[in-house]
Amino acid sequence: MAEKSVYEHLKSEGVSRREFLKACGVLVGAMGMNKLPPVADSNLPPHLARGAKVIYQVAEALENKPRVPVIWLEFQDCAGCSEALTRSQSPTLVDLVLKQISIEYHETLTAAAGHQTEANKQAIMEQYRGQYLLVVEGSIPLGADGAYCTVGGRSAEDILREAADGAAAIIATGNCAAFGGLPMANPNPTDAKGVMDILTDKTVVNIPGCPAIPEATTGTIAHFLVFGTLPELDDLNRPKTFYGVTVHDRCLRRPFYEAGKFAKSFDDEGAKKGWCLYKLGCKGPTTYNACASIKWDGGTSFPIQSGHPCLGCSEPGFWDGGGFYQGQSAPLQRPAIGAVGAATAVGVVVGAGMAAANKAQKKG
Amino acid sequence: MQAETAINLFVKKTGGWVASQLEACTRCGLCATACHYYEATGKPEFAPVWKVELLRRAYEQRFTLVGKAKVAMGIEKPISDDDIKEWSVYDFHGCSMCNKCSFVCPMGIDIASLIGAVRAGITAAGEAPAGLVKKTEVQLATGSPNGATREDYAAWFARTSKEMGKELPVDKKGAHTLLLLTNLEIAGFPNNLVAIAKILDAAKIDWTLSLEARDAFNMGTIIGNGKAMKQLADKVYNTAVDLGVKRVLVSCCGHGYTTLRDKLPNVMGKPLPFEVQHIAELMGVLVRDGKIKLQEGYFANGHTYTFHDSCKIQRAGGIMDEPRLVLRQLAGDSFHEMLPNRKEAICCGGGGGLRAIPEAYDIRMAAFGLKVDQIKKAGADTVVTTCSNCRLQFKEGFEHYKLDTQVTGLAELMSQAIVE
Amino acid sequence: MDWNAFLAFTRGPLFYASLLIFIAGMVYRLVQVAMLGWDKDQSVARGSKAGGVVKSFLKGILILPFIPWIKGAFQKRPIMYIAGGLFHLGLFTVIFLGTPHMLVWKSLLGFGWPTLALPFVDWLAVAAIIGMLVLIVYRRTDAVLRLLSGPAEYLNWLFVFLPMISGYIMTHHLFFRYEVAYSLHMLSVDWMLIWIPFSRISHFMFYFFSRTIRGVEWGKRAVTP
To answer: CB of B285 within 8 A of CB of B314?
Structure first.
């Protein structure tokens, strides 16, 4: 079933050539691939020709390349990233990636269950060894020998290592899979880890977020489909296309930040006027994600636009990065009264000691 | 070990009062702008903060962790004997303890008092200028820094009595006011006694002179020798208590006045049983309260007058309005103010014992140059002062600069204009 | 290098430790001086000591910093007065009336207050930075200041300048990524907090001593301090 090219498959599903090219355009946009070299033989000016040419390039790739099987593993997750994908309002793109790229194994989406599914997974892994794409959702617990998360009696780590062994590329979607996410938050009872902390010898593409932006996940997968390579990554292995700038940089409320106009509570005049949410704990300035540009639900909105500060969900350890509603400049911990008291006591004791010694000197 | 002696004294002097002010210093160097010796010489070492440097080093090195660490790391050296010699120049030759710097200090540090502590340390280490040491010894022996004895004073009193045609009261028990003179008047302007006697008589004050407590001058204060200071001030204290006076009136000595008023009670550890007042204040009070009537405009006679605010009487004493009240009555519009004046006035350059240090002659005359400029700008031909030391500095200074500007005392002017 | 992780370190444990060292150090300095013994003044006052203290602070905090030219010494070093004044004005405005810093106080003290608009705070921050640059030039060129300045003075300048310049860079997203600039800002702030108790930057505490002493001493003499 994976022998047909993507286009052939789409055609058999009743997708017209026009719709196919449109989908390719969406992909191009999503992948940020407007930076390919301009085309000399076009009569259009380069800046116009460029975009059009890329679409054809993508279309060509999708027309000719065979479909790629995907194995989607879920560990300590909430399936939120999968949910986000399936409920995405970019149907063409998601259809393209989710349905048309054959997802061979996905616990939440697969109709079959039990040993049958596991056996199917084994078969695919063997048949497409070195060719399939591995997507991981959820963190991997190492505590109690992995007993906190098992599938079919095998630990998450075991399953992951096995699947990673024959994968052509590995994508960790969501903050849990990328950086450990919520399961890893203090005190991290299951000793949860992100994928890249376990597969230290492999390149893992991280698509963090809570959930990951569907377009970021699909766009990255599409990149692999089209070019057969992984997109350019930042130092946290996130595709630069989606994680190159901060939410703050692209935020529609940024002018209010610059002007020093802040909402001070969620129902004040500033909040109603759409002023900056920095004082309400927005983590936008340190959060690298595409929320502010791609947005959610087909570009409808994103948290800051709808009045909620950014939580910084695409950054490692965001759950422990200070209160969500506490301004980002605030220190992460407020010293306990006891600690302040102890410091004061140390000061008093040393100071009084010095003063006493000095007074003795005065007499001597 | 000279340095050791000095440091021990610094340590003794450093309580919370000194330490907190040393800690407050930010080393901004603005105090230099206030110092007339720095202005006159341009020597950065004459910046007031640098004069306190020894005290700061002693405090930090002996009292604080940072100071100890600095010495251990070699960033700062302990105070050496050479340092003491060096700072003797800065603190004695280059400082009249006028305390103008404290008005410039953004932190409001009482710099002159700190310099006083440094002086004390240097004196204890035996590096005070020879001239001052000599004068201190002479005053301890004879009662006056210039060696004027009991007999000299007695002769002066007798001479003045004869001049005035009436016997001046001497050591009169139960008198209300004890008038304290200085040796400077004997030497420089003995007529001051006549003037003050006239004023006190006109105000019908029951006053007396004393042959015991003769001299308000206190070399102990100037040189920073606590023992000598107490010994000399004690003489005044004991005499005042013996005579049972209610008030000690200082005729014209600046530091003598502040020593008795501010320092003596703290040396005694209790408030004094008598009031200490300076004649400059009394004159103003008498005129203001109508006890003495002056012939208005008596000196509006073509001369132009200006008033010199001396450091101890006006700035440190707070007696700034009273002499002006008198001078306005006497001279009217021919009284011109120098700028800056009152508490921001520049020192004459001769205070703090500088007149007794021959080596400091050039420095103090250079500093006096600033005063000359001010006087010229004020357009005055006569400078009125209430301080005997300033008066002598002006006299010397005018000679040095070859000016025919005159200097006189306020009491002498006032005594001439009293309406009987 | 994971700068967000480093940022979490500088904002978290390092700041925490620095703050405690700062508190312990400042208390040490305060107690060390306060318990050194104070002599009771036995002399008779001509004027009101309490009144002198009030005037001393009014002048020191409200008048002189804002209209320094009424001071005679101003004419001799106007640039230094203005530079020093702008530095302190900018510093206090940024620290207390800048929104991000108010949030720091809020998280530490439990209550906040209204802040000024960023552009206004920003200009004062620029003024403070320029003021600092002028002051360091002054310190290097003026004979008195050169004499007074040892390693400690230059380090004090540097350790105050670093938080200011890194804060400015961070606010304006210049040169570095935000979390890098933020980390450097926090790192310099943390270090400054540790450094303050062992340096003359602590003058802000002793200012209250010296101004009070001044008020008492000159109020006693009936001279405006």
So the answer is: no
CATH (domain of A301): 4.10.480.10
Kindly state whether residues A165 and A304 are assigned to the same domain.
Answer: no
Give the neighbours of chain A: at least 3 Cβ pairs within 8 Å: B, C
How many Cβ pairs closer than 8 A exist between chain B and C?
Answer: 152
The amino acid that residue A222 corresponds to is A
A192 shares its domain with A205: yes
Question: Is residue A52 in a domain?
Answer: no
Residues A238 and A302 in one domain: no
CA B259, distance to chain mean position in Å, is 9
Q: How far is CA B302 from the centre of its chain?
A: 31
- pLDDT for position A38: 42
The pairing of beta strand B275-278 with beta strand B247-250: parallel
Local structure of A111: helix, strand or coil: coil
For C45-67, the pLDDT digits (tens) are 888 889 999 999 988 888 777 77
CATH number at residue A204: 3.40.50.700
Chain C nearest CA to B43, separation (Å): 8
pLDDT confidence tier of residue C2, bands split at 50, 70 and 90: confident
**Contact call for A361 and B11, based on CB within 8 A:** yes
**Contact residues, chain A to chain B, C-beta under 8 Å:** 354, 358, 361-362
Peptide bond before residue A309 is cis, with ω within 30 degrees of 0: no
Same domain, A89 and A181: yes
* Domain boundary residue, one of A195, A225, A243: A243
pLDDT tens-digit readout, B323-361: 999 999 988 889 999 988 888 888 999 888 888 899 999
Which residues in chain B are closer than 8 Å to C47, comparing Cβ atoms? 318
Q: Please give the structure tokens belonging to residue C148.
A: 């007074």
pLDDT (tens digit per residue) in C61-99: 887 777 777 777 777 888 888 898 899 999 999 999 988
Q: H helices of C64-109, where? A: 78-92, 99-109
d(CA B187, CA B144): 11
Chain B hits for A354, CB-CB cut-off 8 Å, are 63-65
Q: Are A287 and A158 found together in one domain?
A: no
Q: Please tell me whether residues A238 and A161 are part of one structural domain.
A: yes
Which domains, from first to last, does chain B contain? Answer: 2-128 (1.10.1060), 131-285 (3.40.50), 292-419 (3.40.50)
Higher pLDDT, A263 or A98: A263
Cβ atoms of B123 and B224 closer than 8 Å: yes
Reported as a pLDDT band with limits 50, 70 and 90, residue A101 is low
Helices C151-171 & C118-141 angle (0-180, nearest 10): 150
| Contact check, Cβ <8 Å, B27/C47 | no
In whole angstroms, give the CA distance from residue B294 to residue B282: 14
- What DSSP element (H or E) covers A125? helix A115-127
B26-63 pLDDT per residue, tens: 998 889 988 999 988 999 999 999 999 999 999 999 99
**pLDDT of the residue at B239:** 93
Does A152 have pLDDT greater than 90?
no
Please give the helix or strand (H or E) that residue A193 lies within, else none: strand A192-193
Question: What are the residues whose beta carbons fall under 8 Å from the beta carbon of A154, sequence distance 6 or more?
Answer: none
Which CA distances in Å does A146 have to A170, A179, A191, B167?
21, 17, 9, 115
Neighboring chain B residues of A347 at a CB cutoff of 8 Å? none
pLDDT in tens, C26-35: 999 999 999 9
Q: Provide the domain count of chain A.
A: 2
Which two structure tokens, joined as six digits, stand for A29?
A: 């946009």
Q: What would the mean pLDDT of C164-188 be, rounded to a whole number?
A: 89
Residue A77 and residue A180 in one domain: yes
Q: Which domain holds residue A252?
A: 247-320
A266 and A236, same structural domain? no
Nearest to C124 by CA among C161, C156, C158, C164: C164
What is the distance in angstroms between the CA of the first residue and the CA of the last residue of chain C? Answer: 55
